[in-house]
């Protein structure tokens, strides 16, 4: 009898590999399109009475306004834009009666005066102010401009264009300049009684607070000085204005320090102009003005107090002070940072979002405007941001996410109970929440002992030790969290990290120094960026952490990131190609010794320029051997496209393997959903080819 021939070994191995690949593909369970399909909410707005709430949903590039109204707050779509055309919707503003909503469609102009046009539409693109009726959904265009505000009666809308205010009646008619004034008009705000408009007028190296009186056609200035006066805020009775004064002082940069920027809070009589300073910062870096994350961080509140934010103790906290002057009270003590602020309808209490007691998440808390105990409103393993008090103060609307559930609008009782989604119908039925990884918090130390936080996405169904990828956020003033992110760019990045983990990669997202969330000293770390790239040791420490875990393939560790994360990707490949096998660099900074828009880089001496150059990927390109995928839009307004052009020239000189994906007319934060998909598919494919043995 003939015996059956044994199957060749190589054929058996091939069958096993094919079976394993089929099993992995089946277990992966979701596509990149699915994990990026959740609509992303932004631009929250509340009516004056708190009976209406609106926001923008970006659903796979189709941006529309949604509305929820008391008493049920059942959400519905208000506008009907149907194309992934890259035209943003921003600056939602309710009319005084809540029956109309003004908004802006189209992005800001670049230095050449061009509005973003990522579809390369031959007709061009425009930044325009639109008006929609919240009852009927009828929508009309008012004119080209930005930052709309309603008149006190709601019968007209003013908006900014070419540094002036223009006004148009909602009943129709021709737009006109509201008034003529020197300087760039900014931050206009009507007095509560509707008789006066306060605004800031920027005039180069100084700025004034001005008051415009329509009934007398008169403009008055409040306490003009050589300093920069910004952010006018009216008292509830319309008799006084609080504003911030940024003192013009000599620059005190050193190689490794920011400019010291002292500031004060002033209160002026709106009729006489008589002013007094009620508070002044100290004269150290920690006391320096750190900006206004939103208008709510500087506000005239209940009990005749003014709330403001400061980092005087090394953390972003809220303080309040009597409007007549006196001692400032720290409202939010502790080692955490306040990020969003809302006020109860009587202005007597604050609801704020912070990483208190949960440093890699955000939750909501409550405190009185004159002090007292800080009480939790939400807790747990979710992330809550952007609170708004609605329904006569009985309820709270905010955005919420978890590790598996994407960022969406939620409503709850004012104490945080009975929390449920506001628009569950907007989430696609095939969104793969149940199949997503729950990232683990990991903490490791850099070579200099600095403690670094990260989020570890473990590879699914990996055979042996899987390849690993280290992700670096941009900014650098950002923080990745243990769940879906509250910023659109990092919401998308979180989705890609989940997708890569589902494809068999271990992914470590690193909150390197110079990011937010861990205090000012961490954010303003010595020798960071162009001052010496001290944060790069955090990326090396992340690779060491992965290697020493024994759970990944030490020869196949990749890097990816965008913007500042692209800088660190390129720096890793240039300095340590033996450590990092491949990288995907989205619109990264490659040479600090040339001016980089949006980032403060001191280059006013040969020594500083030399350090900036040595801190750049371009300086170490002669050691670069690992392959890289470069992705960039050529209308980038944050990191010049020339940064990638210059790097490619050097890579060609060194015969370094690179691939490129260029998006004509796209900006830094890609405006089209299609472009995000193309970029991320290219990144995943590149890693598959370069990191999987």
Mind telling me which CATH architecture of the domain at 441-691 this is? 3-Layer(aba) Sandwich
Roughly what fraction of the amino acids lie in strands? 25-35%
Number of strands: 40
CATH fold-level assignment of the domain at 441-691: Rossmann fold
The percentage helix is 10-25%
Structural class: alpha+beta
Give the termini separation.
44 Å
Please tally the helical runs, counting DSSP H or I stretches of 4 or more residues.
9
Uncertain regions spanning at least 5 consecutive residues: 1-26
What is the CA-atom radius of gyration, in angstroms?
27 Å
The CATH homologous superfamily of the domain at 441-691 is termed: Alpha/Beta hydrolase fold, catalytic domain
Overall morphology: globular
Q: In CATH's first tier, which class of the domain at 441-691 applies?
A: Alpha Beta
Strand order of the main beta sheet, please?
33-34-36-35-37-38-39-40
Largest sheet: 8 strands, mixed
Please tell me about this protein's structure.
The protein has 693 residues and is α+β, with helices and mostly antiparallel strands. Among the domains are: 38-170, Methylamine Dehydrogenase, Chain H, CATH 2.130.10; 441-691, Alpha/Beta hydrolase fold, catalytic domain (Rossmann fold, 3-Layer(aba) Sandwich), CATH 3.40.50. Helices cover 16% and strands 33% of the residues. Strands 33-34-36-35-37-38-39-40 form an 8-stranded mixed β-sheet, sandwiched between helices. A hairpin with a 5-residue loop joins strand 1 and strand 2 (52-59).
